[in-house]
Amino acid sequence: MNKDTTKPAVNKVPKTSKNRRKSRELVLKAIYQNFVSPKKLSQLIIELDEDPDFSKADENYFHQLLEGVYEKLSELDTRIGAFIDRPIVELSPIEHAILCISSYELIFDLSIPYRVAINEGVELAKIYGGTDGHKYVNGVLDKVAAEARPSEIKRKSS
């Protein structure tokens, strides 16, 4: 008796979940645009709603993150400024935007583990930042995390 032991082909179901990394990328575009040519938040949202990647992003997280960074930008600059080696206006707009996004997550969104916030910032810097910019971003975010989440870092290192 000859049994067919091959498994039937399984069709992979395409991933339909909304992507927070795409949300962060869109927020990066918005904050960058605002640094280069200041615009109202509502105008940035309208422009990014037309971005081809918008349908792949977690829309709720996009709005939460963009509005949060926009609202807390001055405070974020102050907090980041304590850990950088130059005036904040001398940062590249991309690295400045990445630092704002990840610092916002570290300081104001405790639902995001600190390692995730740092890793996402580093990944954005690898994709969009200058050569070795990700190393700079990583170093600054490590310091922001140490200040913003000392007990979480202590628990992870124990």
Which keywords apply here?
158 residues; mainly alpha; N-utilizing Substance Protein B Homolog, Chain A; 7 helices; globular
**Tally of helical runs:** 7
How many β-strand runs? Answer: 0
Largest sheet: none
- Judging by the overall fold, what is the CATH architecture? Orthogonal Bundle
**Cα-based radius of gyration, to the nearest Å:** 19 Å
Between the first and last Cα atoms, what is the distance in angstroms?
Answer: 59 Å
Map the helices and strands.
Blueprint: H1 20-36, H2 41-49, H3 59-81, H4 93-108, H5 114-128, H6 133-148, H7 150-157
Helix pairs in contact: 1-3, 1-4, 3-4, 4-5, 4-6, 5-6
Structure description:
This protein is mostly helical. It has a single domain, classed as NusB-like (N-utilizing Substance Protein B Homolog, Chain A), CATH 1.10.940.10. The chain has seven helices and no strands. α4 (93-108) packs parallel to α6 (133-148) and α5 runs antiparallel to α6. The relative contact order is 0.12.
In short:
The protein is mostly helical and 158 residues long. Helix content is 66%, strand content 0%.
